[in-house]
């Protein structure tokens, strides 16, 4: 799958931001929700995953590194920002590099 063929599923972006997902650096499109960013990294598994995309199912829960403790957020409702660090993710979120 070529991500350029699916560009219209993403919010418009001009550049990629660097974030960390469970200790691995990844480049993802600015201006998009974290769940879209995961989809960018793993088009198949996220597209066909069990996600409502609107805040109901809670399957997209991730934990962000905070100042004192982790903070749980919904990936479909959280916009990505440069340097975000995701420490843990719901088991529903499967990211396979290169898919
Ligand atoms: S995808 Fe269902 S709550 Fe985020």
Task: Report on this structure.
The protein is built from two helices and five strands. The protein has 99 residues and is an alpha+beta fold. The protein has a single domain (10-89), classed as Roll (Ubiquitin-like (UB roll)), CATH 3.10.20. Strands 2-1-5-3-4 form a five-stranded mixed β-sheet, covered by helices on one side. It is globular. The structure holds FE2/S2 (inorganic) cluster (FES).
pLDDT averaged residue by residue? 93
| CATH architecture identity | Roll
Which structural class matches the secondary elements? Answer: alpha+beta
The overall number of domains is 1
CATH classification, class level = Alpha Beta
Which ligands accompany this protein?
Answer: FE2/S2 (inorganic) cluster
Q: CATH superfamily name?
A: Beta-grasp domain
Distance between the termini: 7 Å
Largest sheet: 5 strands, mixed
Shape designation? globular
**CATH overall fold name:** Ubiquitin-like (UB roll)
How many alpha or pi helices?
A: 2
| Model regions low in confidence, pLDDT < 50 over at least 5 residues | none
Q: Element order, helices and strands?
A: EEHHEEE
- State Rg: 13 Å
Strand % is 25-35%
Percent range of helical residues: 10-25%
Q: What is the number of E strands? A: 5
Record the strand order, biggest sheet: 2-1-5-3-4
């Amino acid at each position: 799958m070529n991500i350029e063929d699916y560009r219209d599923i993403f919010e418009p972006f001009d550049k990629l931001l660097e974030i960390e997902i469970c200790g691995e650096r990844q480049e993802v499109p600015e201006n998009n929700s974290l769940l879209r960013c995961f989809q960018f990294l793993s088009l198949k598994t996220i597209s066909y995953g069990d996600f409502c995309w609107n805040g109901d199912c809670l399957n997209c829960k991730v934990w962000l590194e905070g100042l004192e403790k982790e903070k749980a957020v919904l990936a479909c409702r959280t916009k990505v920002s440069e340097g975000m660090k995701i420490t843990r993710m719901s088991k529903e979120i499967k990211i396979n590099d290169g898919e």
